[in-house]
From TrEMBL:
It comes from the Eukaryota. This is Glutathione S-transferase. The lineage of its organism: Eukaryota, Viridiplantae, Streptophyta, Embryophyta, Tracheophyta.
Length: 58
């Protein structure tokens, strides 16, 4: 579900949420994803399933 919402907000063919350059939303998503990856390693539990969310690269 989350990926469907992200895809709707993502400009077609653009590398970032804001278009050609990274801005605040891009930085916040990147920071959040990196902490999820760290948390998964610390607690030893997979929080993000790559099969269910293939667009989220951790």
């Amino acid at each position: 579900m989350m990926e469907k919402e992200i895809v709707k907000e993502f400009p077609a063919g653009k590398p970032f949420f804001s278009g050609e350059r990274p801005r605040f939303p891009d930085v916040m998503v990147g920071l959040t994803l990196s902490w999820i990856s760290v948390l998964e390693r610390v607690i030893g539990v997979k929080l993000v399933d790559q099969e269910r969310t293939p667009l989220m690269h951790l």
